[in-house]
Design a protein that fits this description.
275 residues; single chain; Sel1-like; 2 domains; 8% strand; Sel1 repeat-containing protein; 3 strands; mainly alpha
C-alpha cells in the first residue's frame, strides 16, 4: 500500500495551541470523590489576519468529503448555501435576514466566524426594526451594564435569540465532550462506535496506511483512550486519513479550518502538583 507523505505540508499542522481557561473542580465532600483538574486548549488562528484566511481550506475539504456523500459535509454545504441566500436578502434590506446573518457570523453557521460582521448586521437589523435584534441589544446592555446607542461609534453587541436550525456546535467536538453535548456536536455516534476500540491494534493498522483506522486513531488520541491524550497527534492523524481519501476525516479537517478546536483535557499537571 502506498503511504502518502505530502500530508505534512497541510497548514493546520502548523497551528499553535494556547490555554484558554483553567479550573479545578471541587471535591464532593459527601462522596469523597476525587478532584479532577481540567483545562482547555485551542488551536488559535492569527487574529490579526483576515478572518477569511482559512475559509477556502475548509471549503476545499468539505467539497471533497461531500463528493463521497459524507453526511456532515453535505449538511455543512447546505448551511453554506443557506448563508448565501440569507446574505443576498440581507443586502437587499430584509431585516429578518440581517438578524439571521448576524447569528450566522457569530456561530460560524455556513461561514467563518466574524464578530465585527456579526455586530454590523445586528445593528442594521435593529435599525430596520427587527424585534430579535432589538431584544438582543437590550439584553446585551443589561448583562454588560452598558447604555450604548446604535449611533455610538464603538457600538458592540451579540445576538441572543437563535433559530432552531442553528444547532451544530462544530468547535466543541473534541476532547472530553460530556454526554449532553455530544449530540449537539455530532460526535455521539462516533463516541459509541470508537470508544471501546483497542488502541494498539488501531495504531498498527493506521501506521500500515489504513485510512479508516487512521481516522479512528485520531479520535483515540483526541480522547486519550488507551494512550496519553494528545491533540496534536489527533490532528495529524485526521490529516493523514483525509489525504488518504477517507471522507469523514476530510470533513473533520474542514471543521478544524472552519471552527478551530476547543479541547477539554484532564489531569493538568501544574494543578496536581506534578508540574
Amino acid at each position: 500500500m502506498l503511504i502518502r507523505t505530502d500530508w505534512k505540508k497541510e497548514p493546520v499542522l502548523q497551528f499553535g495551541f494556547m490555554t484558554m481557561q483553567a479550573m479545578i473542580s471541587e471535591i464532593d465532600k459527601e462522596t469523597g470523590g476525587k478532584m479532577e483538574p481540567t483545562y482547555s486548549e485551542s488551536v488559535f488562528f492569527d487574529y490579526d489576519a483576515d478572518p477569511q484566511l482559512y475559509w477556502p481550506y475548509a471549503l476545499k475539504w468539505y467539497k471533497r468529503a461531500a463528493l463521497q456523500k459524507e453526511p456532515l459535509a453535505v449538511e455543512i454545504l447546505r448551511q453554506i448555501e443557506c448563508f448565501k441566500s440569507t446574505e443576498q436578502k440581507a443586502t437587499e434590506g430584509d431585516a429578518e435576514a440581517q438578524y439571521l446573518l448576524s447569528v450566522y457570523y457569530h456561530d460560524s453557521y455556513g461561514t467563518y466566524q466574524d464578530f465585527e460582521k456579526c455586530t454590523e448586521w445586528l445593528k442594521k437589523a435593529a435599525i430596520n426594526g427587527n424585534e430579535d435584534a432589538v431584544r438582543s441589544i437590550a439584553e446585551w446592555n443589561r448583562l454588560t451594564g452598558c447604555k450604548q446607542k446604535l449611533s455610538d461609534p464603538d457600538f458592540s453587541a451579540e445576538p441572543d435569540f437563535y433559530p432552531d436550525e442553528d444547532n451544530i456546535f462544530l468547535g466543541g467536538r473534541h476532547g472530553w465532550v460530556d454526554e449532553e453535548n455530544r449530540e449537539l456536536a455530532h460526535v455521539d455516534i462516533i463516541w459509541e462506535k470508537f470508544y471501546n476500540l483497542d488502541f494498539d491494534d488501531t495504531l498498527r493498522a493506521a501506521e500500515a496506511g489504513d485510512a479508516e483506522k487512521q481516522y479512528q486513531l485520531a479520535w483515540l488520541y483526541d480522547w486519550g483512550k488507551g494512550t496519553e491524550q494528545d491533540t496534536k497527534k489527533a490532528i495529524e492523524w485526521f490529516v493523514r486519513s483525509a489525504y488518504n481519501g477517507y471522507a469523514p476525516a476530510q470533513t473533520e479537517v474542514g471543521i478544524l479550518y472552519h471552527a478551530g478546536i476547543m479541547v477539554t483535557k484532564s489531569k493538568l499537571e501544574v494543578f496536581s502538583g506534578k508540574g
